[in-house]
Amino acid sequence: MNRAASVSVIMPAAGSGQRFGSQSNKLFAILDGKPLWQHTVDRFHNRGDVRQIVLAVSEEDESTFREQIASISSAAPIHLVRGGATRSESVGAALDAVKKFVAESAVANSSTPTLVAIHDAARPLVRQSDLDRVFAKAAETGAAILAAPVSGTLKRTTGNGSETVDRRNTFVALTPQVFAIDVICQAYARDRGRLATDDAQLVERTSHPVQLVPGSADNLKITFPEDLRIAEAILNECRSEFV
After folding, report:
1. Cβ count near 178 (within 10 Å)
2. How many angstroms separate the CA atoms of 56 and 60, rounded?
3. Mean pLDDT of all residues in the chain?
């Protein structure tokens, strides 16, 4: 599978602003003059390999997303689906929409590999070079994720204190996490509501190997208000990297 891939991007966007300290969805927070989630969409919507972007949103946020989508000029269509109570439910709903899109499009009858990239809507700083590499690896192997090597010292609590954890061969998972459509659909079909920290864990449970592609550590997830200030500084310093 070394041919150029056709990619559908799923962005879970139905979360709350609880940890962000906001009554509204943190994705509507303004970063460099526009809503945070639009910066994330900007990383994907003009790529030639991205065929569609599916946002899984909550019922209360749907009208706001629709209003803001109207102001975006995107080469790839942006679709909304109703998200669920959990991240996996939201991704599952978006997967259903992707399967329908693929079945109805010419992609289903071509020799082009069909990939699904699941990316946090609150990660606006993923680099194009990282996307190139993780898409290529997923097209080759069926499952690949961006990940950053752990750089700090790791500690684990014990009954009477703490102990140091060997950080060799240890990575922090990033997004996007990219899979052949049949691989991720099989993983979700076998999910049955079991807890998982990310989509790669669901795929690992099917015994399909997930490849790690080193990604930039500045592909940060906006979780707290101070993260917005960090993101804006990175964006202003390295703007050409995100075009």
Report:
1. 33
2. 12
3. 90
Residue 23: pLDDT above 70?
no
- Give one DSSP letter per residue of 12-72, joined into a string: E----STTTT-SS-GGGSEETTEEHHHHHHHTTTT-TTEEEEEEEE-GGGHHHHHHHHTT-
Six-digit token pair at 37?
């989630």
Q: Do residues 135 and 161 make contact, with C-beta atoms less than 8 angstroms apart?
A: no
Half-sphere exposure of 108 (CA within 13 A, CB side): 9
Query: How far is residue 42 from each of residues 18, 38, 50, 188, 239, measured CA to CA in Å?
Result: 25, 6, 12, 27, 12
pLDDT in tens, 54-104: 999 999 999 999 999 998 888 899 999 999 988 999 999 999 999 998 888
Query: In whole angstroms, what is the distance from residue 154 CA to residue 164 CA?
Result: 6
d(CA 14, CA 36): 14
Q: Dihedral, CA atoms, 55, 60, 61, 66, nearest 10 degrees?
A: 80
- pLDDT per residue over 119-142, tens digit each? 999 999 999 999 999 999 999 999
Kindly list the distances between the CA atom of residue 17 and the CA atoms of 9, 22, 45, 224, in Å, as whole numbers in the listed order: 23, 5, 25, 9
Here the tokens at position 78 are: 């942006």
Q: What is the pTM of this model?
A: 0.92
And the tokens for 232? 């804006």
